[in-house]
Design goal:
By secondary structure, the chain is α+β, with helices and mostly antiparallel strands. The chain contains two helices and two strands. It is elongated and about 65 Å long.
Length: 86
């Protein structure tokens, strides 16, 4: 029979479980329209089948910009992206 973890071991296990849990998604509060841009919602699946959503912002260019900031700043993605490419 496996012994029960002591308080210190249990705290470590809970910390590991919490640290390996994906963060909850923040709501998207603005769209490119709020910044004067036209866009289209696009939906597709990753190779592993995970559904993905994105914005396609058409432009007169032969370049493609893909931005994926870390999850901890999801609410700031569009403003930060605009600052990076404007």
């Amino acid at each position: 029979m496996t012994p029960r973890p002591n308080a210190e071991q249990l705290a470590f296990i809970q910390g590991m479980a919490t640290g390996n849990t994906p963060p909850r998604r923040s709501p998207v509060l603005k769209t490119p329209t709020d910044y004067g841009m036209k866009y289209e919602d696009v939906f597709f699946s990753a190779i592993d089948g995970v559904p993905l959503e994105a914005w396609f912002i058409p432009a007169d260019s032969n370049r493609l910009v893909v931005l994926q900031p870390p999850p901890d700043d999801e609410p700031l993605r569009l403003p930060r992206a605009l600052g990076a490419v404007v």
